[in-house]
Amino acid sequence: LTSAINQLPGSLQVEVKNMDVYKVKLEIIQQLQQQASDIDYANDVRNLINELPKEVTLEHEEKIKKARAAYDQLNKDQQQLIGLEYVKLTTLENQLSTLLKDQQIEQIKAQISALPTIAKLTLNDKEAILQAYDAYLALPYDQKQAIDSRQLNRAVAALIELQIAALPATVTEADKPALNEIRYLYNEADYSIQSLLTNYNK
Asked: Model's pTM, two decimal places?
């Protein structure tokens, strides 16, 4: 009907009776269609959320991310239709965040545990030590508190000592990169590491 009316010349469109009523009804129909569409989109997201368990594991990470991405793609009107499912989504996201933090902590603990004892440590262990140390430094304060860093601190200090011991008695311009690395590691280290060094004044 709308198409037919629009094809009429303007002079005839004016003569169409009840045009105002038609426009009001057309607007109502369009609103109802939009509401139905909003409900469909919202229901799709609600179904994604409802498929998630009440307690999640790391295996559910991708499904949670998929549900979040779907929710974020909804407009504000559609998001308002989600209701309690959104509470479930945020709760599961918090659970997942905790699991990911715990996993990160355990991975760093494993890196530290895999380091050789100080007596067996060599310059060949540099990469493993620095990887564990960088990962530890990147953690926020609360996660650092869950890790006993004493073994790592001793390993970093021992590495710096080995690097210093490897310097020649008389350094030259060629030794500048090694000196800069030692200085960088020392400056990045906190006092608990610096205080363990026995040959830094060399």
From this structure: 0.71
